[in-house]
Amino acid sequence: MIGALALTALAVTSCSSSDGDSATSASPVPNGGDVLSSTPLTNAALLPSAGRSELITYASENGEGKPIVVSGTVAIPSGTAPEGGWPVISWAHGTTGIADTCAPSGDTVDGAVHDYVGTVSATLDQWIQNGYAVVQTDYEGMGTPGDHTYLNATSESNAVTDIVRAARHLDPSVGSKWFVGGHSQGGAAAISASDQAVDRAPELTLLGAIAVAPGSGLSQTPQYIASGSQAVAPILSFLPITLLGAAAADTAVVPEEIVTPAAEPLMKAARTGCIADIRAAIGDIQVNSVIRPGADLGPWTDYLAKQEPSNANPKVPVLFAQGSTDALVTPAASQILVKQLCEKGTELDYRSYEGADHRAAVAASFSDATAFTKALLAGEQVPTTC
């Protein structure tokens, strides 16, 4: 497993001792963004237009402020960087799963997440062609030891921020001006980072956030699934991911006390496979059979409520992209989030893409996203629909 040695190194350097000799010989504790390992990237996660591509592990912090090791990729354009270095797109990926095999940095042409990662990579490669360094985190517990705390706003924000720091440690051609972008799960992470990243990395200059179909209304998920309505069927695959992700972050969430034995095929698929495997495991499982009658949904609901992107107070302009035919993150749900963010005074530009579904919104929004970043890099005002 990638990062095992790095995690050991992080644990060793994080230790302290009351023995004076041991304390004086201890290595410094890694800071967020310190590069712990680096190797040339050669798999399907490679962005073909990049002049340099690295698979890295780096130091970060989880939602409780504890040190963790995170993996990800760094792609740098060919040629000579502009004055100030290459501007950066820090990309937060959409839901692939929670198992290590679902980490985008491990993508292969016949891999479990290539149908999604490959499509998004085609758009990210266009950023490289336009002169941006592209860094992509795998998030906490995906590709490195530990469990993935799915949707954890602080952990994901730290991960997308610290990988920018790591890229700058890795290659001096990477600049300090950056944008956070993301899709679905990552869209929510981008909104969270638009608030938290400014204070976390004051040495960097976060200029804007690009949120494509960001997940929202998260705290409604437990009750929605528990309703047993057939309308829930299309999102049943998210039951084990949201539940296990919450349990990884909060010990008050106990999956065994919430789901029935009928849901075990879904739970098993989530622990070892990716989103396609979970969908395949649904089979004949009925929505009204997966939640235990009278189960205490409070801790699970409370955890998700704390991760809502609506909790953020963005400190930079936000481009909010939404596909008109998105059935997973619906336009109606996004309009609610837009209203909540606008009421906080957010500089937000909402763009809708006719005929685009959940995944297609990434490519559909690219032209507007590049106009957004170019304007901000030039110090210009960007449109707002608030």
Question: Secondary-structure blueprint of this entry?
Answer:
Blueprint: H1 4-14, H2 20-25, E1 35-40, E2 50-61, E3 67-77, E4 86-92, H3 114-129, E5 133-137, H4 153-170, E6 174-183, H5 185-200, E7 205-212, H6 221-226, H7 238-249, H8 264-272, H9 275-282, H10 298-306, E8 318-323, H11 331-342, E9 348-353, H12 360-364, H13 366-377
What does this structure look like?
- The chain is α/β, with parallel strands linked by helices.
- The protein has 13 helices and nine strands.
- The protein has helices at 4-14, 20-25, 114-129, 153-170, 185-200, 221-226, 238-249, 264-272, 275-282, 298-306, 331-342, 360-364, 366-377, and strands at residues 35-40, 50-61, 67-77, 86-92, 133-137, 174-183, 205-212, 318-323, 348-353.
- Strands 1-2-3-5-4-6-7-8-9 form a nine-stranded mixed sheet, sandwiched between helices.
- The longest helix is centred in the middle third of the chain and has 18 residues, at 153-170.
- The model is unreliable at 1-9 and 11-27 (pLDDT under 50).
